[in-house]
Amino acid sequence: MKQRLIRIVKELLGAAEYTFRPWNYAADELIVLCMHSTPLDRTQSFERLLDFIFSHFKALDPNFIEEYFAGKLQDGPYVLFTFDDGLKNNLTAAELLEKRNARAIFFVVPDFIEAEDGERYYRQYIRQRIDEEVDHEREDFTPLTYAELKVLKERGHCVESHTMSHRMRATDSQEDVERELKLSKITIEKKLGTKPTMFCSPVQTNLSVSAMAKRRIMEEYNFHFTTFPALHSSMKNPHMIFRRNIEVHWPISQIKYSLGKADLARWKDEISRFLQL
């Protein structure tokens, strides 16, 4: 009941902000979307989402992300799709993005890809709480293969690191951190032939990244995607990339809330905490 009430409040706030205080994003703004599962039976919802998003933002090719953070792109606002965990059902999402001449970043977990029982691994270490009304087919719980990821790369998408196991926490030892950051990078490079330059921290960034891990991410990767939402036009830091979580089954009113500015204030303390690490 509590979660339902929260969702309703977000939908109302999102619809109100969108109607009475229309988004006014700068031409150099970048909204990075964080998505997860994209079930096949939600394809129509995803297409409606894409139509809505691209009516407000231009797609940023992830292969040009360096140019964006160097301040060279000023013809937006832009949107960038990212998908966490590397679920097999993301293949359909990739195809729908391609039809709109857009590409995405897929953050993958090698231990998940190589698990003997992918569904069990997913339920145990990646997403313990699953809405069975949304995710109910095998491809909703199992990983993309390296062969499928290679094809995605050949079609212009990026495949990057989301840790080795998805179990990275801020309390980890240096040995554990090295495995999560460096071994994942080495594994992906070995399997796909290109070295990852982007890292996405799991769970909530302040719960998964310590000061030591933050330093090692900066040493190993050119870009760090966090779980915090904020505006890039006011701070272009490639090691502090903000993302807006949305899910394919959400109504447009709730997506408006996630894309808007009303929710940003409550994240300021978390962002400040991470910057001070």
Describe the 3D structure.
This protein is of the alpha/beta class and 277 residues long. The protein has a single domain (2-268), classed as Glycoside hydrolase/deacetylase (TIM Barrel, Alpha-Beta Barrel), CATH 3.20.20.370. The chain has 12 helices and 8 strands. Strands 1, 2, 3, 4, 5 and 8 form a 6-stranded parallel β-sheet that branches. α3 links the parallel β2 and β3 (78-85). α1 (2-20) packs across α11 (252-259) and α8 runs parallel beside α10 (211-220). The longest helix has 19 residues, at 2-20. It is globular and about 50 Å long.
Sequence-ordered SSE layout with sheet pairings:
Elements: H1 2-20, E1 30-35, H2 43-54, E2 58-59, H3 65-69, E3 78-85, H4 90-99, E4 104-108, H5 110-113, H6 118-126, H7 146-154, E5 158-161, H8 174-192, E6 198-200, H9 205-208, H10 211-220, E7 223-225, E8 244-245, H11 252-259, H12 268-275
Parallel strand pairs: 1-3, 1-8, 2-3, 3-4, 4-5, 6-7
Largest sheet: 6 strands, parallel
N-end to C-end Cα span:
37 Å
In CATH, the homologous superfamily goes by the name: Glycoside hydrolase/deacetylase
The helix count comes to 12
Shape: globular
- Poorly predicted parts: none
Domain tally: 1
Mean pLDDT: 95
Taken as a percent bin, the fraction of beta residues is 5-15%
Q: So what's the CATH class?
A: Alpha Beta
Q: Determine Rg (CA atoms, Å).
A: 18 Å
Q: List how many beta strands DSSP finds.
A: 8
Helicity range: 40-55%
Order of helices and strands: HEHEHEHEHHHEHEHHEEHH
CATH architecture: Alpha-Beta Barrel
User: What structural class do you assign from the helix and strand content?
Assistant: alpha/beta
CATH topology: TIM Barrel
